[in-house]
Amino acid sequence: MDARDHRAYLKSQIALKGLPSISLTLNIPGYPKSNPTVKTFFDYCLRDFNYFLKAQLVNLFDVESVELSDEAGDFYLVPCNPGNLTLDEIKRHCESFEQTHPLGRFIDADLNDAHGNTVSSGKSKICFFCLEREAIECRRENAHKPEELRAFMFPKMEDFSRQQYENKIVKKLSSLALQAILAEISLSPKPGLVDKFSSGSHSDMNYQTFLSSTSAIFPYFSELVLAGFNFEDNNLLRALPLIRRIGLRMETAMNESTRNVNTQKGIIFLMGLALFSCGKLFSQGERFNIIEFRAILLGICRNLVRNELKESSPAGISHGIDIFLSYGYGGARAEAESGFETVFKYGLPKLEGVAQLTDQPLIECFLAIAANNMDTNILYRRNYEVLTQFQNLCKTALGNFTDQNYCAVIDYCKAENISPGGSADLLAVTIFVWSVLNTKIL
Ligand SMILES: [Zn+2]
Q1: What's the rounded Cα separation, in Å, for the pair 148 and 146?
Q2: Distance from the alpha carbon of residue 147 to the mean position of ligand 1, in angstroms
Q3: Domain that residue 415 falls in
């Protein structure tokens, strides 16, 4: 049985059950009828077609649908139950899908009645290539060479699929970054930090303040991913001003939502870099790879500490500069310049093998980060000795996790009025990386 006979047979099998069926195919001139470009485009069309029909309340028997790719090309067939709809109405929905899809002229969405016969609306289509004559005439007379038609169609299909892929990546990565930030904020109890039940060592912010500022900065996540996805300059250093420009707008949004309380300046910087780098990475391929991700980060942040701290303005401009001048620690900038070394060396290993996030591994992950991070938030509020003591308590709790040892960290932060905000930011970034590694992105 050849491919066309096989399709007719499948339609007749559905007709035997007394049901109409809907099919989706592409108009591909010449041979082969399918290739990776065509198949990817077909898959995106099929997904949209399904949503389109279901939104019009067309009842499809999904479980009995057939999808195949053979010498006649890509093909989808599904039985449907007209329910309250007439066949004419369903046919109009199929036509409407073709007409509203950006490349609908390449698509054939057909309806077959309960006898297996194609339902025609009697309307003719204009040839998508010459836009002059009826498609059926051009086809009958072979008016256009198949190679010409294919050269016209395939780049359009590729652009469409690329756009769909980009949309998916942007939505998915933005969502994972939001989830990571919310997971960090919600983790409770945390030493010195704002959590669900306590404002820690902060008098000007609480859990709700963080929800406000997170909501305020979230709409910019997609911009960061897109900027990375579309960044084509070989010199990654030129990415930094782009990221910073979006970051500054995020800071304004944060300040507006918190009445100028700095809840998330650190995470805006770090997650901004992470989202941009991920966007760039996924524009190059469909898989996340730690080495490539870090290579992009390293490229963007090369000499960041030297450029912005060592050779920058005098004291008093920012906390980061003051701490660098006093202690020589570069804070979030140094972490970025190292390609998130703390995240990959101390944080991520604690989430290895974790299938679903729960509080315990997240607390251990936080302790591992905090025990090793020269947290400039603590240095700014207090001094080197307090930071060292805090790190030692984190190490003890990590080595022997008991309520008592963890409470000792919490109590110490309370007594010294410190908040390891830098480590909290790195926890959020670690959760993000873990999510990207452990989630089906496409
Ligand atoms: Zn034509």
Answers
A1: 5
A2: 14
A3: 169-438
CA distances in angstroms from 192 to 258, 266, 362, 390, listed in the order given: 20, 16, 16, 11
Query: Using CA atoms, how far apart are residues 223 and 225, in angstroms rounded to an integer?
Result: 6
Q: What's the CA-to-centroid distance between 139 and ligand 1, angstroms? A: 8
- Tell me what pLDDT residue 328 has: 81
DSSP conformational letter for 78: E
CA 120 to centroid of ligand 1, rounded, Å: 21
Residue 38 lies in a domain: yes
Distances (CA, A) of 11 to 20, 28, 157: 9, 21, 28
The CATH code of the domain that includes 309 is 1.10.4200
Would residue 163 count as lying in a domain?
no
Mean pLDDT (the chain) is: 95
How crowded is the C-beta side of 260, counted as CA atoms within 13 Å? 0
Residues 207-266: pLDDT tens digits?
999 999 999 999 999 999 999 999 999 999 999 999 999 999 999 999 999 999 999 999
Q: Mean pLDDT across the stretch 409-425?
A: 97
- Report how far ligand 1's centroid is from the alpha carbon of 419 (Å): 70
pLDDT digits (tens, 9 = 90+) for 238-247: 999 999 999 9
Residue 155 lies in a domain: no
Q: What pLDDT is recorded for position 53? A: 97
